[in-house]
Amino acid sequence: MNSFNSSGNDAESPQDRLRKMVNELPHKPGVYLYKDRLNRVIYVGKARDLHKRVSQYFHPSRRMGWDPKLKALMDSVYDFEVHVVRSEPEALLLEGKLIKDFRPRYNISFRDDKKFLLVKVNLNDAIPRFVLTRMKKDDGSRYFGPYAHSGALRSSLMLLKKKYHLRSCRAHTPGEREYKHCLDHAIKICSAPCVNKITMDEYKKNIIKACDALEGKNDELVTDLHAEMKDAAVRLDFEKAASLRDMIQDLQKTSKFTRKFARPLPRSINPKKDLSDLGDILGLEGPPRIIECFDISNISNTHIVASMVCFRDGFSEKNDYRRYRIRSVEIQNDFASMAEVIRRRYARVLIQQIRRPNLIVVDGGKGQISSALEELKKLGLDSIPLIGLAKEFEEIYRPFQPHPLQLPKDSGALKLLQRIRDEAHRFANGYHQLLLKKRVEESLLDEIPGISERKKIALLTKFGSIKRIKTFTPEEISTIDGISLRLARDIKTWLLRNSQDTFEADTPAPED
To answer: Lower Cβ count inside 10 Å, N or C end of the chain?
Structure first.
């Protein structure tokens, strides 16, 4: 995969520089990423021909006919980069991965992997096995993919099953059902761990080897298949040789994308250098390898929640993400909310002896810093470096420092902090939206004639709950766009007649 981006010549105007970049693009399939002045990815797209596709955006005759969204996008574009791939399906997969990684604000699709197959295996199962799925869940399983070539994927899984004698039947634990004659075991493509024909340690080693093959670490397997193919050709068994050739091609189709893009791409930063610079700027003992970042999310007094994201060596560790529903704060108070989430997180760190971060980042300024530091002192953890990153001017606040630190906009250390802060914000907002969606689904408003999905969301966003809606007058309710005074009176009357306290129970949520 080849990459192209700007040289950053300050003597040229942005438009001249972009036009030169467009003229140098190859006529090849790939993915393009538009960036703003802060070097944040704001749009990701794919193309069969990068030169033709990207040049369309910058053609003067096209600008006048664009809709407001596209005009706003192009007004925000300050730079772009492209990544050349081998084929259009590969570009489609890379586009999906990058949209999930960067969450650009101008992209509205690719929010899940429903279009393509994934391979799932839970190594914690008594007898792990590969399963095909189209939805990735936070269930402790390992996932591989997505894969554009479903036929090649199924063929590869069958090859791995035969090679490593893996089980494919559905019983998850030994003894779930009485063992009967197993055809797969009879023809020697399953090691029958359910009846102790092989020890579980040996079986799990084979599963891990198969996982490595899916990740692209399959050179030994491909070499063996090539040797078998040549041997079959020497014996004039051309049908067998052709079958082995197809197996090799299917395995390469299945594993090449996973192998090339095993980590989220692209990263327009040098994580090692940026972490080193950040450590020097903050006066730390070394690069902060483990960074935990906190963000508070609330709309009015509805579902005040918080998030904690973890980055290790500059890359996100999503298994260590945590989300919280704030318990002790009933009205908007970011300082008190931050104090609660810091207290809960690091009390658990002490109790469970979880490894401590090298740097704690909070979204905010002096107030959030003071609240967090006070809680860390109570826990005896105030030796952990702590900073705040304020959104408005991207200033870094530090304890006991009267003035914030402002880094250059092109600083790699600042971009790293922005990426971590933005990920915490995205994760907190996602949890907030999930709780609001659950509340909408359970709401009594569903049963009131004339209340659409949009109006339900507007009511709950404004007032927070049915209990609070009942406390407002019809005139106050009718201030919401789309709700007339007559409808507001109907809402008020209906809720007073039918609502029960049981409808106000909070939805349980996984928390740290």
So the answer is: N
